[in-house]
Amino acid sequence: MSTRDPDNLISSEEGFDYLFKIVLVGDCGAGKTCIVQKFHSGNFVQRHGNTIGVDFSMKTVLIDGKRVKLQIWDTAGQERFRTITQSYYRSANGVILVYDITKRPSFLSLQKWVDEIRKYTTSHVLLILVGNKCDLEDAREVKKSEADMVREYLPEVFHIVETSAKENTNIDSIFFSLASELKRRQENHQINAEDEVIVKLGSGQTLPSNYRNENQVINLEDSNHERNLSSCSSCSFKVL
Amino acid sequence: MEDDLPTEYDVIVVGTGMTESIVAAAASRIGKKVLHLDSNEYYGGLWATFNFDGLQKWMEDLKSAASENKDFKPDLQDGEQFLQASNQYSTIENIVEDWFISNDEDLPAVLAKNTQTESSEEPSGAEKVDDDKSDKKDTKHWSIDRIKKEYRRFNIDLAPKLLFARGELVELLISSNIARYAEFRAVSRVATCMNGKLTQVPCSRADVFANKTVSVIEKRMLMQLLTSCMDQGADSPEFDGYRDKPFVEYLNTKKLTPIVKHYVMQAIAMATDKTSCRDGVNNTKHFLNSLGRYGNTPFLWPMYGSGELPQCFCRLCAVFGGVYCLKRHLDGVVTSGDKCKAILSGKQRLTLEHLVVGQGHLPPEIVASTGENKISRGIFITDRSIMKGEKENLTLLYYPPEEAGQEAVTIIELGPLTNACPQGLFIVHMTCKRTKTAKEDLAYVVKKFLKAEKLEKNVSRTPTDSQTQTSIAGGESVSKDIESKNPDDENSNNTMPQVLWSLYLNLPASDIKLSESAPNNIHLCSGPDLNLDFDFAVNQAKEIFKSMYPDEDFLPRAPDPEEIILEGEEAPGPKFEGDNSNGENEKQDNEKAEKEE
């Protein structure tokens, strides 16, 4: 808990200035779910079954006074037979690619994961490479220097870090560095939102109380289609 | 042994097409143990969307996959019978692929430099927007090499389909909360071809009244007619005596002017002269019902293509514990009496209560009829829109047959904003019922709207970005310029879209039927059908689910992340109440139990 700065973590139910989709990938058992859990709720749960029913989690962090909302997606176990759906990667702003420093094969499959990421994400997706379980120094099979060398072959990796979800080493920092870099990039090239009219049906990003009544479908006919939601990575309609 | 699967399931689903995926999600959602297999390495089967490279690979594989059937001698118990799976009901026929442009080395070098660069018009801030947009400045025209190089920016559908804004699928996506996995773009215009020219059909009430080609009296006529379709549908006494006669006969009694009749027939009801009044009225009702929900027209298009949607249901299935395995072949099914007991796949015997199987994997022994409604498809990469507009449009055009022996063709034109293709290009999808080969069936429509002749090597057409309305920044000023010049030569040969690449193919029939003697726990899922939307698949999935689990809810709303209470959560979201299925509680209990271990 030591690195956790309560001032920079705010409840996910407030508004936000930026919204980014982050997806986790990496071999089975690398600790993806633990990393998300640790960041999201501060808990470390050693034994996970398949995380049933949990889809993605939301967490808002404060960067330079702006609320950056991260929508963090887990693989739903589909990495096991390498059957992650393309739609999982769609419109992702950031990818956290996880390997287990105590399992060399998980490091060796990075190439395959990167191929998949290249195939399905946009070319400007932000990729962060995470070597998890660095608390298990005795069982280490992948040196940090090896991971650093990977960068030469994988230019899209913008940051490499070793973490321990168990001891909360660098967990928050993964998400903070992703959030601040994404925010920086977004500010630098404000996307012209006029043509970006994307319809989302029943958005998962609003308060549950808004959902109860299915009939609250917002009729978009009269709304201005070209409103500029600067807060959003892609100006999209949130239709409940 | 990574490929070894657990061997006992409630439901095994083979094939990741639309119907299969919906059933898989529904079964998993109520707590059934689901295994979902596909022999391909991609999702969707005949519903898939590919990038350009993926599509080429798919065609390659079709050529080589012809005869993989080996004789299979499984170990069987007494009374069991083995039926070998076959891919004969998912056969693609008459593939014709053509290029109309050249390779890089054949292009004259000078032409790559074009005077009409947009850089001067783009605000400086937008220039670095991203790599994707800036590189359109490098070379201004398209070569085979360039299209191949940019393969990732294409999303090409085998079976493109739209969603009615109030159709079954939209309602299901919202009610099940699966909508969060997908994004859509509203079809921005419905076009129709009137007197040889393409015009935009006024869709909303505002559009109708703003339209200058229709007189006030015609507007009244139209509104009256639409209201009577809308209010009671085909059961209204208004349609007594006409229901089973052609829709056009009924319309003729209404003394409509030709324009109004044209709009109703060809754009709203999408009817031919043979369409019955009942169908015509129902189509009209469906169309009107879906108006005004999202965007200007009743239709939505899934971003990245139709092939995304089955995957959304697969994701839900996985989230609730479904096991996924692609590149996994179904060898056959083991039956005993009137039940299917297991499947054999990759040397494993996997037992099941229900087998849900796509038509591409059926053993021929249990098929009664092979269906008649085969599909002809044409896919075109073009250099501009079939109909000029101020902005990039997503267009639906229904084109009824010109003469006997032709079939009505549905045309969907997608631009870069849907991620179907890179900036400066369009993808045109044509679909109709098969009578001959795809190329023959579609020829009359291709000729009408597209220029499908080889471009001569040394002639380069004017680059299209500025003419087509596609550039993102500064595009508006450009397109206005163009528009003021010459709005009239819509279909003249100069402005017709040039086809850069085309592909014709025939998809199999979707109306295959199982024989009476087929085991009753085998459920058949059809391939893509001829309809414009997905409702056939949704309804088929509902029926299958109901026959498997008559007392269970079909895809009740999945909770949002905030609503799931994980043990020890710091700030749990509000408790999830909207769901009363037992499956859900059970799952949460399981999860807790697992954590307590």
Describe how the helices and strands are arranged.
The complex is a heterodimer of chains A (240) and B (597).
Chain A: E1 9-10, E2 18-26, H1 32-41, E3 56-63, E4 66-73, H2 86-89, E5 94-100, H3 104-108, H4 110-120, E6 126-132, H5 144-153, E7 157-162, H6 171-188, E8 198-201, E9 236-239
Chain B: E1 11-14, H1 18-29, E2 34-37, E3 49-50, H2 52-64, E4 80-84, E5 93-99, H3 131-134, H4 144-149, E6 156-157, E7 163-164, H5 168-176, E8 184-186, E9 189-194, E10 197-200, H6 205-210, H7 216-232, H8 247-253, H9 258-268, H10 277-289, E11 299-302, H11 308-319, E12 323-325, E13 332-336, E14 339-345, E15 348-351, E16 354-358, E17 367-369, E18 375-382, E19 395-399, E20 409-414, E21 426-433, H12 438-449, H13 465-468, H14 475-485, E22 499-507, E23 513-514, E24 522-525, H15 535-548, H16 582-596
Helix pairs in contact in B: 1-11, 1-15, 7-10, 8-10
What does this structure look like?
- The complex is a heterodimer of chains A (240) and B (597).
- Chain A is 24% helix and 23% strand.
- Chain A has a domain at 18-182: 3-Layer(aba) Sandwich (Rossmann fold), CATH 3.40.50.
- By secondary structure, chain A is an alpha/beta fold.
- The model of chain A is unreliable at 1-7, 191-195 and 203-240 (pLDDT under 50).
- Chain B has 597 residues and is α+β, with helices and mostly antiparallel strands.
- Chain B has 16 helices and 24 strands.
- In chain B, the strands form 6 sheets. In chain B, strands 5-22-18-21-20-19-9-10 form an 8-stranded mixed β-sheet, with helices on both faces. Chain B has a 5-stranded parallel β-sheet with strand order 12-2-1-16-24, covered by helices on one side. In chain B, strands 4-13-14-15 form a 4-stranded antiparallel β-sheet, with no helix packed on it.
- In chain B, a hairpin with a 2-residue loop joins strand 14 and strand 15 (348-351).
- The radius of gyration of chain B is 26 Å and the shape is globular.
- In chain B, 49% of the residues are buried.
- The chains are: A alpha/beta (240), B alpha+beta (597).
- Chains A and B meet through strand 3, helix 2, strand 8 and strand 9 of A and helix 5, strand 8, helix 11, strand 12 and helix 16 of B.
